[in-house]
Structures are given as C-alpha cells and as structure tokens.
C-alpha cells in the first residue's frame, strides 16, 4: 500500500526488550482518498430541495445522491439554508458537500427512518436507519463547513434502536472533514465494519458517544473537537459469543491533535464491546477533560478478545483521572450477555505504553481490576508530570515498567501493588 504510515516501538522491561508488534500500516488518507477526481456536481436545489427548515427535503436529497452515484460519482452540493430531512442513503463515489451556513436537521418523525439490521452495543439487531446512512460502498465523504443536527425526538428510543446521525456500514475509504454534528440521546456517529476511515476537523457535541468505531480497520481521527455526555471516542469490536464468533477487530487506529471532553464518562473508551479484539491504537497530542478518565480500557469476563498494542504519547489530562483499566467487570449489563465460556472468555490485555503525559488529575492510574487467570502483560508508564489526588494501584500485572514519574499532591500511598512483576516499582512504593 503506498505511503504507508508505519509506527513501531519497543517496550523495555528490565534487561529484556519486548517488541510490541505495534505496527500501524495504512494509507495516508490525505493523499489516497478519492484517488480519481470527482468533477460532477449535483445541487440539491436542482432536485427540488427548498431549504426553508419546514418542508421536508428528503426526496430531493435522495434523488441528488442517487443521481450522483449512478452517474459515476461526484459531489452533491448543499447550499446555505435549513434542510429538514429524514434518513437518506449515500451511494458509491459520492461526496456530500455542506456549504457555509448550510444546516441539515433530522425529522422528528420515526416513520422517516426505516427499520433495518444495525449493530448496536456489539450486536446485530433491528434499529432505525441513521440520518445519513451508507452500506457496502466505496469512496464516500461528507465535507463542511456546514452542520448536521440529529433530532433527540428519534434518537433515544430502544428496541428498536433509535437514530444515530452518521452510520457507514461495510464501506471503504470514508472521509469526513470540516463540519459540525450535534446529537442528543444516542451516539452521534458510528462507522461499522469500515476500512480506511479519515475523520478530520469535525466538531461533535452530543449527549452520548461522539464517535463509535466498531470493528473498523485503518482509522485516523485528527484535529477534532468532541464534547459529549458519554465517551468522546469509543472503540468497539462486538459483544459476547456473537462478536467472538465473527472475530472482526478494530485495528490500526490513530487519534491525534484532538480536544476531547467527556462530561459524564471518558474521553477515549476502549471497549466495553471487545470480543472481536482491539489492537494497534495510538493516541497522541490530545487534550482530555473527563468526569471519569481520559483513557478507560474496559470490558468484562465473558466477552473475551485481546486488547493489545495500545499507546498514548504527548497528552494533556486537564480534569478527571488519567488511566483506568478494568478487564473484569466493566461495560453495559442492561441486556443479557451471550458469554464466551471458560478461560477463552477472559479478556487479555497486552502491551500498553503511555509516555510524556502531563496531568492535573484525580486518579493517576487505576489498574486494579485484572484477573489472575489472565494478567495484564506489559504496562509502561514513563515521563509523567503534574499533580494528582490519588496515585497508582495495580493488580495482576506482569512486565510492568515505569520511570520519570514526577507528580505531586496525592494522599495515601502513591503506589499500591498486588501480584505485580516488573521494573522501576521500588523507587515509588514508599513515596
């Protein structure tokens, strides 16, 4: 693949060097997306859109999108105006371009969103189609600077799931850039089973998750401003035996230069639907403000899956805790799991590395909910400065290593360990 971005690092534990095997190899989407220029343009007004915010423009939008796709691709232009629409579906090689002062608002009527099989909290089940939906197509994009508003009236209902704003499923080469999304009562965006996804300069404000990356490969999220009531960004890969049976991981994810606010939960949640595996995730140069933790790696026994090669570098934690890892008992339990039985159902964490972190946080690191049956294998904390009210707690961790932790303000013991092996621990146990 041309212009591959390859990031490798080694994790050093004492005298041994464990090669993390963290290789993110995916095309630099700024150069490879839409490799064939798309010159044709299709203005929604030419297909009957009014843009007055009162009359529904769903039919006009769908005609414009369909004409673009069947004509070989191009751009669907949305001029300034307020467009009230129900669910629409994007086709192959189509860019939806939202011009300045264009606002798309979702209808408040459930009947404007067909019911179909969607992925929700790690399972395929009936749900309402997204406001802007695509499936099994390549080279699609949404480009700003306009705005897309989900409607809370159709977002919250469950069984079937309510409406999310953007949801591409099984698509290749997805590009979102330079627009704003608002949503209340449900996830804002949900790429599922997609490859080569680039999300750049997107602002999201919502009541629940901002971006849910679900069993996707080669994902780049950069320069985004995300302020949400739940996880700002969440990485998922299926839930329970159904997710493990499909075995579709989320892998090769780069998150950089983002400003993340999790008003009720985490800035970046990894899990809790981890049954297909999550690997090769790099988080760098981000600012994090959360109610719980900047980075929360979470799952529960019965979901299985390997979570491996997770790194964070050059991060600012402005509020909330920094790091929590719970591989035993976290995650949604309001619907019954179909658990993976036996030891295979115990999630495994491997090769986690966090360096060059600046904190003004509550808990620095809570890594106390790890099973003895499958200890966390590999945890590096390095070059951390700032203040915290509580230090580090570890349980059932092997190949741990840390150095240059210069933080102040904690109460009680800085470091509490149970069944932990590694290097650098002694310098901190009696601080």
Q: Percent range for helical residues?
A: under 10%
The low-confidence runs, each spanning 5 or more residues with pLDDT under 50, are 1-36
- Cα(first) to Cα(last) distance is 50 Å
Assign the CATH topology: Pectate Lyase C-like
Gyration radius over CA = 22 Å
CATH architecture: 3 Solenoid
Principal-axis shape = elongated
What does the largest sheet look like? 25 strands, parallel
What's the helix count? Answer: 5
Tell me the name of the CATH class. Answer: Mainly Beta
* Total domain count: 1
CATH superfamily: Single-stranded right-handed beta-helix, Pectin lyase-like
Beta-strand content: over 45%
In words, what does this structure look like?
The protein has about 425 residues and is mainly β. The chain has a single domain (about 5-335, about 345-430), classed as Single-stranded right-handed beta-helix, Pectin lyase-like (Pectate Lyase C-like, 3 Solenoid). The chain has 5 helices and 34 strands. The protein has helices spanning about 30, 60-70, 150-155, 240-245, 425-430, and strands at about 5, 10-15, 15-20, 25, 40-45, 50-55, 75-80, 80-85, 90, 95-100, 100-105, 115-120, 125-130, 130-135, 140-145, 145-150, 165-170, 170-175, 180-185, 195-200, 205, 210-215, 215-220, 225-230, 235, 250-255, 260, 270, 280-285, 285-300, 305-325, 350-370, 375-410, 415-425. It has a 25-stranded parallel sheet that branches. The model is unreliable at about 1-35 (pLDDT under 50).
Question: Could you name the key traits of this structure?
Answer:
25-stranded parallel β-sheet; disordered N terminus; mainly beta; 431 residues; elongated; three-stranded parallel β-sheet; Pectate Lyase C-like
């Amino acid at each position: 693949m041309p212009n591959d971005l390859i990031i490798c690092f080694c994790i050093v534990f004492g005298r041994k060097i464990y090669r993390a095997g963290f290789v993110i190899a995916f095309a630099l989407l700024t150069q490879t997306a839409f490799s064939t220029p798309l010159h044709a343009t299709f203005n929604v007004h030419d297909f009957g859109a009014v843009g007055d915010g009162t009359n529904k423009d769903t039919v006009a939008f769908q005609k414009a999108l369909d004409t673009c796709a069947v004509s070989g691709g191009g751009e669907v232009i949305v001029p300034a105006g307020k467009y009230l629409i129900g669910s629409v579906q994007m086709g192959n090689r189509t860019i939806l371009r939202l011009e300045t002062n264009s606002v798309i608002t979702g209808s408040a009527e459930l009947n404007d969103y067909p019911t179909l099989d969607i992925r929700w909290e790690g399972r395929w089940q009936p749900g309402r189609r997204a406001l802007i939906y695509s499936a099994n197509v390549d080279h699609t994009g949404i480009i700003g600077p306009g705005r897309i508003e989900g409607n809370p009236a159709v977002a919250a209902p469950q069984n079937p799931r309510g409406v999310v704003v953007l949801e591409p499923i099984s698509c290749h080469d997805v590009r979102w850039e330079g627009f704003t999304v608002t949503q209340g009562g449900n996830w804002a965006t949900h790429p599922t089973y997609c490859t080569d996804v680039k999300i750049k300069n997107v602002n999201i404000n919502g009541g629940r998750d901002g971006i849910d990356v679900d069993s996707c490969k080669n994902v780049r999220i950069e320069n985004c401003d995300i302020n949400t009531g739940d996880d700002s960004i969440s990485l998922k890969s299926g839930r329970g035996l159904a997710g493990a049976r499909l075995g579709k991981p989320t892998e090769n994810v780069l998150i950089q230069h983002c400003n993340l606010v999790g008003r009720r939960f985490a800035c970046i949640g990894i899990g809790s639907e981890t049954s297909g595996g999550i690997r090769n995730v790099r988080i760098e140069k981000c600012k994090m403000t959360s109610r719980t933790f900047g980075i929360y790696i979470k799952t529960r026994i019965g979901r299985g899956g390997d979570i491996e090669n997770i790194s964070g570098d050059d991060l600012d934690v402005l509020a909330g805790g920094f790091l929590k890892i719970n591989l035993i008992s976290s995650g949604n339990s309001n619907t019954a799991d179909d658990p993976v039985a036996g030891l295979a159902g115990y999630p495994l964490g491997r090769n986690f590395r966090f360096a060059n972190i600046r904190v003004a946080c509550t808990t620095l690191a809570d890594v106390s909910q790890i099973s003895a049956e499958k200890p966390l294998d590999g945890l590096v904390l390095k070059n951390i400065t700032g203040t915290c009210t509580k230090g580090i707690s570890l349980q059932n961790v092997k190949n741990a290593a840390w150095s240059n932790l210069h933080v102040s303000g904690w109460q009680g013991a800085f470091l509490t360990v149970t069944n932990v092996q590694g290097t650098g621990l002694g310098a901190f146990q009696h601080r």
